[in-house]
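Project outcomes to date are best conveyed with an example. Our students and postdoctoral researchers have been running inverse folding experiments weekly, and each run begins with a structure described purely in tokens. The record below, which covers 199 residues, was selected by the lab manager from last quarter's runs and is presented without edits.
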């Protein structure tokens, strides 16, 4: 990995963490009540989160394109980072496929998408909660599925995932978010496989 790629990955990680903290604060403010001042503050945080999302996208597209992204190490690294920052013990189950094809985006784009999906999935997880992360190939896509238990649920989860959906759509991917009403959250990323050159 070149120094430029390392720096870009570090910046992407830091910005992703910042976005997660802003998103979490917005959620907390929304829980305080429905008076105008608190709601306005929550909206401000959401707007700031969207701005950060655009900034990250701009940073990733500004540089020259590097090799397509290898999903295995990026998913493992992001999982270790996000779970390590939770501050509460949780049960983590991994079903990560090996030798997945590369994804048709930069490593920085993939790292950010995976980090954001994980942060959304575990935003309100309690001690003893469960997180299951699975990767596999499905036709022309690499699938990343994250399932977590959040007894209180995550309010406005679909709205909070809008920027992630827009981000992965930029490189041909898709994001689905679902809850079962009992505190189980599923976030699935469909990421296009990179085309193999004939040369």
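After processing, the design step wrote out the following sequence:
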């Amino acid at each position: 990995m070149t120094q430029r790629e390392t720096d870009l990955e570090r910046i992407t990680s830091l910005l992703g963490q910042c976005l997660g903290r802003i998103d979490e604060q917005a959620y907390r403010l929304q829980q305080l009540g429905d008076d105008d001042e608190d709601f306005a503050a929550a909206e401000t945080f959401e707007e700031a989160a969207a701005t950060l999302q655009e900034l990250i996208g701009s940073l990733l597209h500004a540089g020259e394109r590097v090799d397509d992204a290898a999903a295995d190490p990026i998913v493992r690294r992001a999982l270790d980072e996000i779970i390590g920052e939770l501050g509460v013990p949780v049960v983590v189950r991994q079903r990560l496929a090996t030798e997945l094809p590369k994804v048709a985006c930069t490593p920085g784009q993939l790292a950010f998408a995976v980090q954001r999906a994980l942060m959304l999935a575990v935003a309100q997880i309690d001690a003893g909660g469960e997180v299951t992360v699975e990767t596999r190939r499905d036709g022309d896509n690499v699938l990343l599925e994250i399932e977590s238990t959040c007894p209180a649920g995550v309010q406005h989860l679909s709205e909070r995932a809008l920027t992630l959906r827009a981000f992965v759509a930029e490189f041909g991917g898709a994001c689905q978010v679902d809850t079962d009403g009992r505190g189980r959250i599923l976030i699935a990323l469909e990421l296009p496989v990179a085309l193999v050159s004939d040369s």
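Residues 62-66 have pLDDT under 50 and may be disordered. Residues 69 and 106 are 5 Å apart (CA to CA). The training component of this project remains on track.
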